[in-house]
Amino acid sequence: MQLKIYNSLTAEKEIFKPILEGNVGMYVCGPTVYSNVHLGNVRTFLSFDFIYRTLMHLGYKVRYVRNITDAGHLTDDGNVENDRFVKQTRLEKLEPMEIVQKYTVDFHKVLDMFNLLPPNIEPTATGHIVEQIELTQKLIERGFAYESNGSVYFDVLEYNRRGLNYGELSKRNIEELFANTRDLDGQGEKKNPQDFALWKKASPAHIMRWNSPWGEGFPGWHLECTAMSTKYLGETFDIHGGGMDLKFPHHECEIAQGKACNDAAPVNYWMHANMLTMNSQRMSKSTGNYILPMQLVTGENDFFEKPFHPSIVRFCFLQAHYRSVLDISNDAMIASEKGFIRLMEALKVLNSITPDDTKQSGFSFQDWKSKAYDALTDDFNSPVLIAHLFEAVKYIFALKDEKETISSADLEDFKSTLNAFVFDVLGLQAVEENNYEKLDQTLKVLIELRNQARRSKNFELSDQIRDKLLAEGIELKDGRDGTTYVLN
Ligand code: AMP
Ligand code: ZN
User: Fold this and answer.
1) Close Cβ partners of 481 (under 8 Å, ≥ 6 residues apart)
2) Residue 206: its pLDDT value, please?
3) Which ligand is in closest contact with the Cα of 249?
4) Domain formed by 277-424, architecture
């Protein structure tokens, strides 16, 4: 079985050859912990969790590193005064490290809720200031970086003058880039507008600051990932992942830093996960088109008609390939819930099937198994794998109705393969007795009874229904389009 991975750098599906046979080094850019993660962020981390789980299932020993960005990630406009941590510190009247702790805890809670496995190493930018200063010094010594007014910048033109190719990942032409960029960040400090900061001088307002050979300052965002990935995985490692939007400039800069420091490309396979949209618009905090993961699970939101169990959200996400855009909607979630319930029912039914070694089955289990593995190894094709799972579901119900048979050897193999796909690889969790759907139906009945009580002016009864549900942690909300509920 050969694993094929789509490499964003070559724009081709390639046969995966790890540096060290049987081992994989994988680095994924982590969150910037200055606010709560939204559901879009979760999709990217979930995509890589599925990739991590698949690699392990295929027998690789994986070292998975995912960082926490807790310093130095400036806003897109590049203005130091708009540093995300500094702004949030002012807004919440907290110490920067209180902000970091608060949102790191939230991040872990959210990923835990969706059953993501923790990475093997989760390094922080602030824990690797020394390494970042060392890298900056090395880049200056090698002639790829220069100091200017207490800040240090990477010299993109010099990089290209030496035959290296800035723009190779995002397929951008350097001349075009120069023509289209205004210098918002460097305020005249940079030689060229495309030069990016390795170290920034701290203004008096900047609270997070460290001593360096260039005075007090803080590291540039791109440098932390080079420092941490190479420290834990080596100067060249197997897989680097992140959301599509990080391709440029973040990952482009990482390639440049790695090549300039070590004369070698830092990464063999670049992998980029596509975006989550809601109502066909990219999910993002800045536009307000976002939902927090917990709001989808409790039902406290204006987008979805009911709450959904985290495993159903996970299932919905995996029904799209990691390189495709996924649009989340009420209908998509309802459809995922139905599919999920049927899949879980089939797994239960399978446990009660009696094998029959005297008859030949019309369903070739071994054929099915090899097709399922083909999907998994074809650039981690979760939607095709799930389509195969539903063929298996059909077969299981045919077995139950005695329209099909299975041999005892195949039955054991079938059970263990299916369980491995569903629980280990897709990372789904059984939802006990489908409580979510039953609860939803029950609550709809109660809401209708309450409406009837109100219509007949029996407010004592209608208030009683509302208050008793509230005491059980279920809040009824009356809106223009009727009554909905929120699970607290
Ligand atoms: P940030 O904390 O902003 O650095 O983002 C963390 C991760 O979430 C990055 O890998 C982003 O690419 C990813 N991300 C941001 N918005 C979305 C979205 N709408 N859909 C999927 N991934 C996203
Ligand atoms: Zn990164």
Assistant:
1) none
2) 81
3) 2
4) Orthogonal Bundle (1.10)
